[in-house]
Amino acid sequence: MPGIDGLERYQSVRLSANFATRTATAVVLGPLFLAMVIWGGPLFAVLIAVLAVICIREWVRLVVADPTVLAAPTLQRGALWLSYAAIGAIVAVEILIGEGWALTLVVATCLGVWLILMAWKVAHATTLSLGIAYVGLGAMAVIWLHGQVDKGPLLVVWLMTVVWGADIGGYVVGKLVGGARLAPAISPNKTWAGVVGGIVLATTAGGLVGWAMGADRLALALALAAGLAVGSQLGDLFESFTKRRFGAKDSGDLIPGHGGLLDRVDGVLAAAPILALFQATLGGALAWW
């Protein structure tokens, strides 16, 4: 059946081209981001603020992509600017005052935006307002981790290594091995083999980078890396569920080969709060780093 063979060859070439584009983009952007982590100083917080605004923009546009959700352009703009203001306020308070007030503001802005959108009779007001918590908590966690005395940049580098390991391991092993689907109704391309591959590579990368950077308890770093890999993949599934619910393939087209920014940082947005919570509670007492 030459028609089928031709289609399979086309899909194989397309997959290879997409993988090459993804790899090239990651090779360029990855080191740039890590350089900002290590040498950015206060500019790093500004960078995270800008990225958070881009993410909330993609979230709102993802939810309102269906014209039946927000029929009036003025309501679309209103929801977008409310979300901008909420994220900007959360990050500003985190930087200038501290995480305690910023956490309070997350709750207050989510509730406030939800009430306003409900008053405007905007469909999916809950999903729109929850995006503020999703993006805001992730941005707060990264800024807080980076601000830890002496080891902050190392923690962020380690976090990114673990999340990237989970992404790369899940993608490569999932494509090579295939097998049973993880959640076909949410993300039909994700497999159980990919989940295992992501956890293994994330744990390995987290262990190697932790050892190279002087983590004091390597076994704990390995266990934490495995847990963050699971959290990262849950974040990926959450965004996939949202995209599928609103009929979108990607959150945007900002990054060649990857889609939108939200498509690339969904794992970070889920894993960063977990690491920050651990570091703020058990991490200090266990002196793992």
Description of the molecule:
Helices cover 79% and strands 3% of the residues. It is mainly α and 289 residues long. The chain folds into 2 domains: 42-147, no CATH class; 149-289, no CATH class. Strands 1-2 form a two-stranded antiparallel ribbon. A hairpin with a 3-residue loop joins strand 1 and strand 2 (187-191).
Strand-helix topology:
Blueprint: H1 2-39, H2 42-63, H3 73-96, H4 99-119, H5 125-146, H6 152-177, E1 181-183, E2 187-191, H7 192-212, H8 218-245, H9 261-286
Antiparallel strand pairs: 1-2
- The low-confidence runs, each spanning 5 or more residues with pLDDT under 50, are 6-17
Mean pLDDT: 84
Q: Domain count, please report it.
A: 2
SSE order, as H and E? HHHHHHEEHHH
Largest sheet geometry: 2 strands, antiparallel
Give the end-to-end Cα distance, rounded to a whole number of Å.
Answer: 59 Å
The total count of helices amounts to 9
Radius of gyration from CA coordinates: 20 Å
